[in-house]
Write a structure and sequence with these properties.
By secondary structure, this protein is an alpha+beta fold. The protein is built from five helices and four strands; from the N terminus they run βαβαααβαβ. Helix 1 runs parallel beside helix 2 and helix 3 runs antiparallel to helix 4. The two termini are about 15 Å apart.
C-alpha cells in the first residue's frame, strides 16, 4: 500500500514562550499555513499567528436581524389574516410585538453563531491526521505544538519545513500524513 502524501510537520516546544517565538519565526520565514496547539489559551500565540477572524460576531448580528424581521413579519401577517379587536387596540401595535421580537432575535442570533461555528470548524470531524501522532495527546495537558502544513508532495518543501522547525528549537518533529 502506498504511503499517504505528506500533510505537514508537527514540532513540539517545551514552553509557551518558545512556542510563541517559533510561531513568529515560522511566519517571518514565509510559512502561511501555520497552526499552534496549546493546553490552555495563550494570547500571544493568536497574535503571532495573525489570527483575526470576526465571522462569528457577524453571523450573530445577521441571525439577530433575521430573527427580529421574521418575528415582526410573522406577527403582522398573523394579525392581518386573523384580525381581532381586543379592547379597541390598533390591529398592528408594534410595541406589543416587542417581546416575541426580542425572543426570536436572541434565538436566531445564538443559532446562527452555533451552527456557523460548526460549519467554519468543519465539525463534526471524527478523525484528523494529527491524532495519529502519539505525543500530540499532550496538547491537552502540557504540550505546545507548532504545525506547518505542506500541500504538495515536494520532498524539498518538507525538508525546508523540517530545517525551519529545527532552527526554531523544536524538541521533537513528527511528520503528519493523512
Amino acid at each position: 500500500m502506498a504511503e499517504p502524501p505528506s500533510r505537514g510537520l508537527l514540532g513540539e516546544y517545551g514552553t509557551p514562550e518558545r512556542l510563541v517565538t517559533a510561531v513568529r519565526g515560522a511566519r517571518e520565514a514565509g510559512m502561511k499555513r501555520v497552526n499552534a496547539f496549546t493546553p490552555f489559551p495563550v494570547d500571544e500565540v493568536a497574535e503571532a499567528l495573525g489570527f483575526k477572524d470576526d465571522r462569528i460576531p457577524w453571523l450573530g448580528l445577521i441571525g439577530g436581524v433575521v430573527g427580529l424581521i421574521g418575528a415582526y413579519a410573522m406577527q403582522i401577517a398573523t394579525n392581518l389574516d386573523y384580525p381581532l379587536n381586543i379592547g379597541g387596540r390598533p390591529l398592528l401595535s408594534l410595541q406589543a410585538f416587542a417581546l416575541i421580537g426580542f425572543e426570536l432575535t436572541v434565538l436566531f442570533s445564538v443559532s446562527f453563531m452555533v451552527f456557523g461555528l460548526f460549519v467554519l470548524n468543519r465539525l463534526p470531524r471524527y478523525n484528523h491526521p494529527l491524532f495519529d501522532i502519539d505525543r500530540f495527546e499532550r496538547a491537552t495537558r502540557d504540550g505546545f505544538f507548532l504545525f506547518i502544513a505542506i500541500d504538495d508532495e515536494d520532498e524539498k518543501a518538507v525538508q525546508e519545513a523540517r530545517a525551519l522547525l529545527e532552527r526554531l528549537g523544536a524538541n521533537s518533529i513528527d511528520e503528519v500524513r493523512g
